[in-house]
Amino acid sequence: MLRIRRKASVVAALAAAGLLAACGGSSGGDSSSTTAPAPTNSETTAAPTPEPDGDILIGVSFYTERIPLYAEMRAGIEEAAAAAGVEVVYADANGNAETQTNQIANMVTQGVDVIIASPVDATAMVPAYQAARDAGVIMISAANKVADEYEDAFVGPNLVDYAAQTMTRLIEGIGGSGKIMIITGPPQISFVQLQQAGWDSVLAEYPDVEVVATGVVEDLTTAKALDVATSLLIANPDVSAIMSSTDNIGVGVVQALEGQGIDPATVFTAGWDAQPNAVELIREGTYTLSLSFLGVEWGRVAFATALEAAKGNLPASHYVSTPGLFVDAENASVLTEAQISGQDPL
Amino acid sequence: MSAGTRDVGVPEVADGGGGWSSWRSRLTLESMFVPGFLILLIVVLTFASPVFLTGRNIPQILVQASTLGIVAVGATFVIIGGDLDLSIGSNVALSGVMSAVAIALWGLPWPLGVLVGLVVGLIIGFVNGLLSAYVRVPAFIATLGTGVLATGIAIHLTNGLTIAGLPDEFGALATARILGLQGLVWFMLVTFIIGGVILHFTNFGIRVFATGGNRDAAFLAGIRVARVRLMNFVIAGFCGGLAGVLLTARVQAGQPGISTTLTLYATAAVILGGTSILGGQGSMLRTFFGVLLISVVQNGLDILGVAYSLQQVAVGAVFVLAACSEALRRRR
C-alpha cells in the first residue's frame, strides 16, 4: 500500500505540475506588437502615465464564463490583445464575490495597469475596486457595474434602455394588451435588475398588459427554465407573451410551450443573447425575438478602452456605449452567426 | 430481506423478517415521517392551487423529479457506504456536454453519443472510487476535486457556450411518451427499481450496508471494503452519466453550467429520505420519497407564484428539516 501511495503521490504531483503549466500558458497574450484600435465611440482625455504597449498588463475578471456572452467578449479581447501585443490575464469569478475580490487583489499584485471587471455584486465588489484603485490600477466595468464613483469607466450597452425596447417590442407584438409572463435569472444579478427596471418602465405605460406570473431560473440554464416555465404554464396556460432574461431561458420556454401542447408560434417569446440555437428557433418561427450584444465587438471595445486608459487616456464619458442588435424573423435568415456574435461587421 | 432501514454494525446475510408483525415494526414514526409530510404537503397544495393535483401537473412533477431521482439513486449507495459524492452536479454537466459534443461536433451517431456520456460518468465515478477507497483521500475532498475538474473541462470544451444541433431521436430518449409518461420518468423509475433490488436484495447490497455501518467490522468479516466503496462510486458515476445524457436529450442542448445545485439537492433528498449521513442505514424507497418531497416543494412554489426569495426560504427550510431529522436519528 505504501508503494501505491508513493506512486500515487508522484502521479498527482506530475499531474498538478502539468496542469499548472497548461494554465499558465493559456493566460498570456500574443507576443506580436501592433497597436490596438482606439475606442470606437468615445473620446479620450489625458491621464498621468503613458506606457508603451509591450509593458502594459491588463487583467480581466468575468462574472462567469458559463454565460455565453462572456465567452464572446473574451474572444474579442483575445483577438484585440493579440493584435496589440498586450498581455492579458483572465479570471473567472464563477459568480462569487469573494472569489472575484481575491482575483482582483491577485491582479494588483501581478502589476496590472487596468482591470476590466464584470462585478459579481454591485455592492460587495466596491471594496475590491477601491483597493485596486488605491493601488493605482484603473478599474473599468463591463456588462455589470458598481456605482459610477467607484469605477473609472463602464463599457457596454445601456441595458435599461435595451430592456425597455425589448418590452416595447413584445407588447406591441401582442397588440398592446394581454397576459404575459416574465422569467428571469437570479434577481441579485445587476443585469437582471437593470432589465427589470427597463421592463417596469414600459409596463407602467400599458395598463392593459397583465403580468400573470413571474419565475426565476437560478442557474440560467435551459433545463431549469424548462421546469420553471412548465410549472408556470400549467397554472397560466393562456398567456400571450413570455419575456425571458436570456435565450437559454427562452429556449426552455419554447420547449415548455411545446410540452404543454401550445404552439410556440402563437406566443410572443423574447430573450437576450441571440445564441445560435435561439436564432435557429427564430428562423423556424417558434421563438420571436432576441437581442445580441455583439459580444466579440463588445470585448474589442472593452480592450481598446482599457488599452487607451493604460496609456493615460481615460474616456471622456464615463459610459462607453456598445451597440446591440435585435434579431427577429425579418433579419434572422440573412444574418450570419459571426455577424450576430459581433465577430464580423454587420 | 428488508426493504426498509438496515442498521448493520456487523455484516448480516438476511434479516429474516416477514409477515405483518415485521412490517408493522417497520412502520415507525421515523419511517413514516417523510411520506406523511409529503401527503400533508400535497393536500395543502391541492387546496392552495386548483391546478396542482391535475393530470397535467402530476406528470410534470415526476419529470422534474427525474434527473434528481436518478442521481439520488447513486448517491444513496455512496452515502449508505459511508462516503459522500460532491461531484454529482459536475458529473451530470460534463457527461451531458460530452454526449452533445460527440453527437453535434464529432458527428457520431446519437447512440454512440449516449455511450460517450455514460462512459464519462463511469470514469468520473471510477476516479472518485479509486481516490477515496484505494488512495484513501477523504471522499468529500476527492469528489470535490474531481467535480471542479469536470466543471472546468466542461467549460473548456464548450467555451461556455451551449452545444446545440442534436437530433430529434436523441431528444426522444427523454421526451417520448410511454403510457402517458415521458421517457425520462421511466428511466428514473427503472433506475430506482434496479438500485433498490441491488441495495436490498443482493449480497452486494448487504456489503454496502456493512461497509457503511462499520468498516473495520466489515473488513474483519471478509468484505473487501475498498472494492465495495469503489463500486458505490462507479454506480454513482453511472447514474450521473445517465442523468447528464438524459438532461441533455431533454433540452436538446449540452450546457456546461447545468446542474450546479444538483449535488446539494441529491444529498438532501437522500438524507431527508432517512439515509444516515454517517452510512450503514438507509433505503432506496425513502430516497424516492425524499426526491418527491423536494420536487413537490419546487413545483408547488412555482405554481403558486411564490416570490423567488421566499422559495429559497422554503427550500432552505426543507434542507434544515433534513438536517434535523438526521440529527434526531443519530440521537436515538
Can you give a write-up of this model?
The complex is a heterodimer of chains A (346) and B (332). Chain A has 346 residues and is an alpha/beta fold. In chain A, the strands form three sheets. In chain A, strands 3-2-4-5-6-13 form a six-stranded parallel β-sheet, sandwiched between helices. Chain A has a six-stranded mixed β-sheet with strand order 8-7-9-10-11-14, with helices on both faces. Chain A has helices at residues 2-27, 68-84, 97-110, 126-134, 159-173, 190-203, 222-235, 247-259, 276-284, 295-310, 337-341, and strands at residues 44-46, 57-62, 87-92, 114-117, 138-142, 153-155, 178-184, 209-216, 241-244, 268-272, 289-292, 313-315, 319-320, 325-327. In chain A, helix 5 (159-173) packs across helix 6. Chain B is mainly α. Chain B has one domain (54-331): ABC transporter involved in vitamin B12 uptake, BtuC. Chain B contains 14 helices and two strands; from the N terminus they run αααααααββααααααα. Chain B has helices spanning 19-26, 29-48, 57-80, 88-105, 110-134, 139-158, 168-175, 183-201, 203-213, 215-220, 225-251, 262-273, 284-304, 308-331, and strands at residues 177-178, 181-182. A two-stranded antiparallel sheet of chain B has the order 1-2. Classes of the chains: A alpha/beta (346), B mainly alpha (332). The interface between A and B is large, with 42 and 41 residues.
Oligomer: heterodimer
Strand content of chain A: 15-25%
What is the number of independent domains of chain A? 2
- H and E string of chain A: HEEHEHEHEEHEHEHEHEHEHEEEH
Cα shape of chain B: globular
Within the CATH hierarchy, at the fold level, what is the topology of the largest domain in chain A? Answer: Rossmann fold
Helicity of chain B, in percent?
over 70%
Please count the beta strands of chain A (DSSP E, at least 2 residues each): 14
Radius of gyration of chain B: 20 Å
> Number of helical runs of chain A?
11
